[in-house]
Amino acid sequence: MAAMDAQVVDLLDDSPPLAEEAAPPAPTAEQLKEAIRVYLQGKDLSTISLKALRVELEQSLGVGQGGLDARKSEIRSTAQELVQEAQSAAAAPQAAVPEPVAKKRKALLGGAAAAVPGGSGAGAVEDSQ
To answer: How much of the chain is in helix, strand and coil states, percent to nearest 5?
Structure first.
C-alpha cells in the first residue's frame, strides 16, 4: 500500500455574514430632549445623577448599554437646561390666576323705608292729608 500524503487546506469563508439584529437608529436631539423631559418629571431634581439618567435613556430609547456614551455632554447640557426651566417655572409667581378681591358688604340702613325710596313697607310713615 502506498502512503498517502495528508495536506491541510485553509478554507476561505466567503459566505455572507449572518443577519444580525439591526441596531436602532441613534435618537435625534429632539427625541433625546423629550426622553429626558419624561425622565425628569416627578423626580427630585437635586438627587438625579447623569449616569442614572443616561442608563435610563439607553433603556427607554433601546440603544443598548453604552449606546449614549458618546453623547454625554449633550445629555448633560439638555438635562441642565430642562432643570433650569423647571426651577424657574416653580419660582415664577402665578400671575395667570389673580387672587379674588374681597367684596365689601353694604351696611343696611335704619329701616325698610329708608332702604327703598318712596317705599311703603313696614315702618314707613304714611302722609295723611
So the answer is: 40, 0, 60
Neighbours of 40 (CB within 10 A): 16
**How does pLDDT run across 31-83, given as a tens digit for each residue?**
999 999 999 988 887 788 889 999 999 999 999 899 999 999 999 999 999 98
Location of C-alpha cell 429632539: 30
Which residues, other chains included, contact 27 with Cβ-Cβ below 8 Å and sequence gap of 6+?
35, 61, 63
Q: Which amino acid is at 35?
A: A
Of 86, 75, 79, 65, nearest to 23 by C-alpha is 65
| One-letter amino acid for residue 83 of the chain | V
Q: Residues 6 or more apart from 94 whose CB is under 8 A from it?
A: none
